[in-house]
Amino acid sequence: MPPSRFRPGLSRPNAPPGEVAWFAFHGDELLVRAVGGNDRFDVPIAADLADLGLRVVRAQPLGELDGRSCRSAELAPGSPAPAGHAYVSLRRLHGRIDPELFDLAGTAYQVQHWDRAHQYCAACGAELETGLDERVKRCARCASSYFPRITPATIVLVEDGPRILMTRQARFPAGMYGLVAGFVEPGETLEGCVAREVHEETGVDIGDIAYFGSQPWPFPHQIMVGFTARYAGGELRVDTRELEDARWFHRDALPTLPPPLSIARKLIDAWLARPAR
Ligand SMILES: [Zn+2]
Question: What is the Å distance from ligand 1's center to 123 Cα?
Answer without folding.
Answer: 5
